[in-house]
Q: What sequence folds into this?
């Protein structure tokens, strides 16, 4: 792997983005970051909070960490509240940034622009072990609880190489990302993937429909790294084939209607990647015949244990508990679906007990989403008085009234499977990486100021 990186760094004139910088300039930035931190005399194992949004500079920081700079923590936002949460979970004293970071008491802010290599700086020698954690990603987690997951060079670089080989991405490709690079999908798809594939990537993150469509038309990217919310947003514009040959999606399940629309307008079936920050990528599927079945990457070992998916791969975070054979048991319930494929049935933590009955929250969500006039829905369960029983609550994106929703739900399900608390919004809140914003949803659903009793009409707009 290190030989591969060294060979890639030899191609110094290759532009990483269409307008630069080149690989050689990124290597120079990495030397500057390395030398700046080594010169400060910081312990080599003391983490630094990495608040960098620029893709070339983020790549430079990761290379610097490989060459002797401290390990980095990547927060999903540079908001003071988020940085405070990160520091509580994994203490740090220094922030390296390319943007205006809000004040955080007790920390020193280092501007990446000030980390310049000295004349005659020593070569960028990669000294960190491939199996030593060098990046920690701060995420919301699949259950909504914030977690920090460690990643090794073997985890991240190995996964980027696998993506390049699986999708045949190479020097002639230009990638457009709608996902910020601080998140695992954006980091892999728009920083490490183009580097290891010798491809180029657009420097900016396009998130608004007009911005995405304009970049597709004017920049002629061949690979789109997107998330479901942006594929849905593009339905409002003039979507055409453009120059795309590959469209990727991750972070959340893709809506079938959005996938069908994209296929009709572009001729491309969106390829979804299933996985998580902690496990890395696991499998893919493309919209079309039998698109409910997932096919694991060739490098992934998997099996089903008591209806749960167990995986073994080089991408799994060292923080996860694995069995004696190296398998990690996920929280996803699956069923075999033909040769080397599986279907996802839901999550173990989506099964709750209501009135003594087992209820699948994802099944309820899908039923609500099929109600005419409903755009999307989120369903959760609230423990009752600390007991194992639960009460179901839902946030629904719709213009229907609460009364109309209750009538529709009443006709479709057993009484124990009906949400007792219902709120409506224009759209389900999401984070920049396309994942559900659970904290915002909880504010909508459970704020005492917004609480309404069963059957009382009302909506949050």
A:
């Amino acid at each position: 792997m290190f030989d591969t990186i060294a060979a890639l760094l030899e191609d110094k004139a290759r532009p990483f983005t269409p307008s630069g910088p080149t690989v050689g300039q990124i290597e120079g930035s990495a030397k500057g970051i390395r030398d700046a931190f080594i010169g400060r005399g910081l312990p080599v194992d003391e983490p630094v909070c990495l608040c960098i949004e620029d893709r070339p500079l983020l790549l430079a920081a990761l290379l610097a960490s490989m060459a002797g700079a401290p390990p980095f923590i990547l927060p999903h936002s540079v908001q003071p509240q988020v940085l405070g949460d990160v520091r509580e979970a994994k203490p740090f004293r220094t922030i390296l940034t390319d943007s205006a970071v809000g004040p955080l008491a007790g920390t020193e802010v280092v501007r990446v622009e000030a980390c310049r290599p000295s004349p005659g700086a020593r070569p960028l020698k990669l000294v960190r072990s491939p199996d030593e954690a060098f990046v920690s990603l701060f995420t919301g987690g699949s259950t909504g609880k914030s977690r920090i997951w460690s990643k090794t060079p073997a985890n991240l670089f190995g996964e980027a190489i696998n993506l390049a080989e699986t999708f045949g991405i190479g020097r002639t490709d230009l990638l457009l990302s709608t996902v910020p690079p601080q998140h695992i999908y954006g980091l892999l798809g728009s920083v490490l993937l183009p580097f290891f594939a010798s491809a180029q990537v657009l420097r900016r993150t396009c998130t608004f429909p007009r911005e995405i469509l304009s970049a597709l038309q004017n920049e002629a990217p061949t690979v789109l790294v997107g998330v479901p919310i942006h594929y849905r947003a593009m339905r409002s514009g003039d979507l055409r084939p453009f120059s795309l040959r590959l469209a990727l999606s991750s972070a959340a399940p893709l809506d079938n209607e959005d996938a069908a629309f994209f296929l009709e307008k572009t001729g491309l079936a969106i390829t979804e990647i299933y996985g998580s920050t902690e496990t890395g990528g696991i499998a893919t599927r493309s919209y079309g015949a039998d698109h409910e079945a997932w096919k694991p990457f060739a490098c992934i070992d998997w099996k089903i244990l008591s209806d749960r998916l167990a995986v073994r791969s080089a991408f799994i975070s060292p923080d996860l508990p694995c069995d004696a054979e190296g398998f990690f048991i996920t929280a996803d319930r699956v069923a075999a679906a033909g040769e080397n494929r599986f279907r996802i049935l839901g999550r173990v933590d989506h099964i709750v007990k209501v009135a003594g009955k087992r209820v699948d929250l994802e099944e309820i969500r899908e039923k609500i989403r099929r109600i005419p006039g409903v755009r999307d829905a989120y369903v959760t369960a609230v423990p009752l008085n600390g007991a194992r029983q639960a009460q179901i609550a839902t946030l629904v994106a719709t213009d229907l009234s609460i009364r109309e929703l209750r009538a529709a739900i009443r006709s479709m399900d057993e009484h124990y499977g009906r949400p007792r608390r219902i709120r409506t919004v224009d759209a389900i809140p999401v984070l920049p990486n396309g994942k559900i914003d659970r904290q915002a949803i909880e504010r909508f659903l459970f704020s005492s100021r917004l609480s309404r009793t069963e059957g009382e009409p009302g909506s949050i707009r």
